[in-house]
Amino acid sequence: MKFRSLATAAVAALSLTTLAACGGSGGQDDASSGPKTIDVWLMKGSVSDDFLKRFTDDFAAKHTDVKLNVQIQEWNGIGAKIIGALASKDAPDVIEVGNTQVAQYSASGGVRDLSDKKADLQGDDWIEGLAGPGNFEGKQYGIPYYAANRVVVYRKDLFAAAGITTPPKTREEWLAATAKVNTGGNQGIYLPGQNFYVLSGFIWDEGGDLAVQEGDKWKGALGTPEALKGMEFYKQIQALGKGPKDSDEAKPTQTDVFAQGKVAQMIAVPGAAELIVQANPALKDKLGFFPIPGKTADKPGAVFTGGSDLIVPEASDAPDAAYTFIKELAGEKWQVDLAKSMKYVPNRKALAAQVTGDEGTTAMAAGAANGKATPNSPNWAAVEAKNPIKEFQTKVLTGGDPAAAAAAADAIITEALNSGK
Amino acid sequence: MKPKRIVLNVIALGVFAFAVFPVYWMVLTAFKPTKEIQAETPSFLPTHITFTHFSTAVNADGFWSFWRNSALVAISGVLLALIVACLAAYSVARLKWKGRQGFIVMVFVAQMTPWEALLIPMYVIARDTDMLDKLPMLTLIYFMMTLPFTIVTLRGFLNAIPPDLEEAAQVDGCNQFQAFRRIVFPLLAPGLLSTSLFGFITAWNEFAFANLLIIKEQDQRTLPVWLSSFSNTFGTDWGATMAAATLFMLPVLLIFLVLQGRVTSGVAAGAVKG
Amino acid sequence: MAVAQLERTAPAPEPEPPARARRGRPRLLPYLLIAPTVLGMAYLLIYPLIRNLVISFQKFGIAQLIRGGADFVGIDNYRAIFTDDKFWSVVGRTFAFTAINVVLIMVLSTLVALLIDALGKWMRLTLMGGLVLAWAIPVLAATTVFQWLFQSQLGVVNWVLVALGFEQYDGYAWFADGTSTFAIIVIMIVWQSVPFAALTLYAAITTVPKEIYESAAIDGAGPVRMFGLITFPILRPMFGLILCLEVIWVFKSFVQIWVISQGGPGDATLTLPVYAYQIAQSLNRYDLGAAISMVTVLLLTVVLLAYFRQLFKEEGEL
């Protein structure tokens, strides 16, 4: 008896398999009538639930011919996933990609050339930190989406309780202030050991870099005295809290840690404040911002200009609808809204004037004056994928020899950047 | 009790504790209130039981559809493997034919396949045959992952059943298939069940292919893929994470409790008979 | 040979190997019965393996994956990995990793199996229940639990160590150090593997007739001698099979390592399967990844060659 039911089920499973195998090739998008559904991948943390709802409601009302299916992706392991999507026959229609990674996708041939849309989107006014990486061999593949750089998000109430009235302006002041609030079960700063964007800033402050180009060859530069000094400072400030030495800001999500209310400062884009309040509304009016302090008071610390571009895969079966979406999201109305609600830098310089007045964006703008980018190579994404800089940080923070750890990381960076040359 | 017995029992308790603690800790954390999880001094007994973590996990987006996908893929893959393996095992255990040796060694070699190495070729094949984003593709892969082991074990079970029984039935006028169905199959059924356990675990656990071959249709994802992202999904919520892991373990545990004894004796039979 | 020996020494419960030569059978039947297996393997195993082999002789990166049209580059990929010191250190580490794990698993599971055999009924059932529990936990869940156990801030292991007076483990980051990460992964794999091996060995031990032990006891043999003289020789094929399975399983371990450390910190836990995956998925050098995995298959085959030869011979005898 058992056999019969087993067999029936298995036959059912078999026929399911074959049926589905055959059914797959027929395109369901052939129907020209009815709304077209487009799949959009946005990265976790790039928009708040609130903003997304406002945007999708408005979009649905305006464009009845396009149905929007937005999926939020995790940063962890996203590279392989995007490549899998680009190589497939039925890819998502719009994908958000980080500005340090867009170059390799543009170079791969799997992304649609959107150069002819540039004028329509007033692309001459785009900010360079997003438009540059999205451009490969003169063709525009990535459409600037938003930019942001890191600031220090802090708890005004805890600072006030510790008697600190003005935010620190130099590294010394910063260390002193952080040590002061690092008491009574509170962490002075929550800085995970592997936040390499923060480290990059400290290294740039010292005049060093992550990698340098010599001729057409790249070379890892963590072993330089400047870089080691940057790491030295990272270690000092990191010790004034309980940030895990062996993990980065995504694991655990640092806004969640901050939202638990036991952390006085963290380094993040200003938009993180939105996510903190979303997780813990009690912190609503207690959050403040200041630029990452530099070595001297007259110049804030150097920061990595982060952000994202939007791309349309070649394999998208609805490029026109995809563009309709991009035009909305990258257009003035929603860029201003996004910049305001997420505290981002909008994708066009002309829009910046419309988003002033906010404490977070002001702090960010002050830092942005000293903004820098990761080494400009399509291979940089490969470095980030198996990030040797993070291991370098963990090794130094747990008492390893900085020079030896840097040499090991440099070897990997050098190899990855020169791979395929 | 004799001293020797006491010593043995103490050792046994130690082994027991070592084996069980991680599982216990997982389930305990799942039932603890968040405040206790984050307490400086952990408590080792369930003093305040809460179900909030389970509701967090269960109410997370798509949990049930991932659960269903996993079950569907694992069960159909295993059933397919059982049927195909049953035929092959019968052929190997009961019939004499040229190439038998080679076939057996091939099955053994197939067991060694490092599956992660086949990700890219499998992706290319799936793409070129329009099988991306489709659960049946995963079913087929899990079928192949479990097939070799299933054949080896089933053959062991078959060898343990004396062929005289079938021969007698054939003398009584049954044909070979009838003899198999009426005589061998009932004896083999427990073996089939226990063998399916291994396949089920393999398929239930599989991550790499599920992660790469299901791209766009997120509601086609399986539980392991979701589980691996949930340290992100839940942030620092170890309670919910452990609750999700507990729910992930549950079906396997249930099947195990029912089938465990037969599995080990089955492998033993398979090995003893070569 | 092992089987022949077994049948000499042990009064096997099931008598002779099944009679096979039957007269008047359609000669096609056996081939029809294995046809689904062969077809399945051809399409889902051999075909992808061949594709993999082909990729290993091409230049195959993201662009080729997306657009197709990969060029053949001969043995360049193999030359690249063979001249890379890192590859050889990974090979060495993989063998060390496999050896450490398998030895621990075999020794511990034998001891546990003998322990179960020596216990009274209740204790035996309790212990077996515990083992089943550890066995049943899916790899991914177990990996998550171990990360939680060894977590630096709230992990219970650090708490216990501090409570025992080892203050330096307050907030200790286990996964920051190569050796400790390696050790944790070994503990985890052994913990996951022992139950299967121990329960299977125990099931086999119960098939050895008690009378043999009794007569040996009369001759004054101690437990160690009894194991060496009776249990082990009788169960040799069993040990062989479990050893072989464990070698295969440990050598191929991927999920445990990938989820916990991705092969790091540094290269401390980088074994061949992880290395192949890392190169392919992180550096997008699918060609190098394919070459490494082909070498992996080859190495594993060489390791198990002796066993396969044995297997082939036995099958011939039957």
Task: Label this structure with key terms.
heterotrimer, B: 274 residues, mainly alpha, MetI-like fold, 12 helices, 76% helix, globular, C: 318 residues, two-stranded antiparallel ribbon, 2 strands, 73% helix, disordered N terminus
Describe the structure.
The complex is a heterotrimer of chains A (421), B (274) and C (318). Chain A is an alpha/beta fold and 421 residues long. Chain A has two domains: 176 residues, D-Maltodextrin-Binding Protein, domain 2 (3-Layer(aba) Sandwich); 194 residues, D-Maltodextrin-Binding Protein, domain 2. Chain A contains 17 helices and 13 strands. Chain A is globular and about 60 Å long. The N and C termini of chain A lie far apart (64 Å). Chain B has two domains: 50 residues, no CATH class; 211 residues, MetI-like (MetI-like fold, Orthogonal Bundle), CATH 1.10.3720. Helices cover 76% and strands 0% of the residues of chain B. In chain B, α4 packs parallel to α7, α8 runs antiparallel to α9 and α9 runs antiparallel to α12. Chain C is globular and about 75 Å long. The longest helix of chain C is centred in the first third of the chain and has 34 residues. Chain C has a domain of 166 residues: MetI-like (MetI-like fold). Chain C is 73% helix and 1% strand. Chain C starts with a helix and ends with a helix. Chains in contact: A-B, A-C, B-C.
The CATH architecture designation of the largest domain in chain A is: 3-Layer(aba) Sandwich
Main sheet properties of chain A: 6 strands, mixed
Fraction in helix of chain C: over 70%
Total domains of chain A: 2
Q: Specify the helix fraction band of chain A.
A: 40-55%
How many helical elements of chain C? 16
Overall geometry of chain A: globular
**What is the second-level CATH architecture of the domain at 88-253 in chain C?**
Orthogonal Bundle
Q: Percent of residues of chain C in beta strands? A: under 5%
Strand order of the largest sheet of chain C: 1-2
CATH topology of the domain at 88-253 in chain C: MetI-like fold
| Major sheet description of chain C | 2 strands, antiparallel
Under the CATH scheme, which class of the largest domain in chain A? Alpha Beta
The pLDDT mean of chain C sits at 83
How many helices of chain A does DSSP assign? 17
Query: Regions of chain A with pLDDT < 50 over 5+ consecutive residues?
Result: 1-31
Termini Cα gap of chain C: 11 Å
Structural class call of chain A reads alpha/beta
Number of strands of chain A: 13
- The number of distinct β-strands of chain C equals 2
